[in-house]
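Please check this:
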Amino acid sequence: MTADQAPPELDPVIHAQARLRVVAALNVLGDGDEMTFGSLKDLLGMTAGNLSVHLTKLEEAEYVRITKTHRGRTPVTYVALTTRGRLAFEDYTRAIRALIDPAGGTT
């Protein structure tokens, strides 16, 4: 980033710490792979209510896909990063790099 360039915009949906952690965790999954809500909750050390609130915000932005189903008679919720969410995360990490890298985040 040069002195005459405006700093890059950071996606406010992803920028919240809890949502950034959710998106980063889901981003390591393969494209189309999903994780159960319970596994994600445990991995991130979040309460069910807190995770649910942040997933709703991410779902409204179409960054995650929530699928509710049953495993036998037990309800199970799966969470996956959408293509849009994956691209938004890539843009977000590129913007962060541009902010902290004097060369503008290009490597």
Notes: The helical segments are 12-15, 17-27, 37-44, 48-60, 83-100. Residues 83-100 form the longest helix (18 residues). The mean pLDDT is 91.
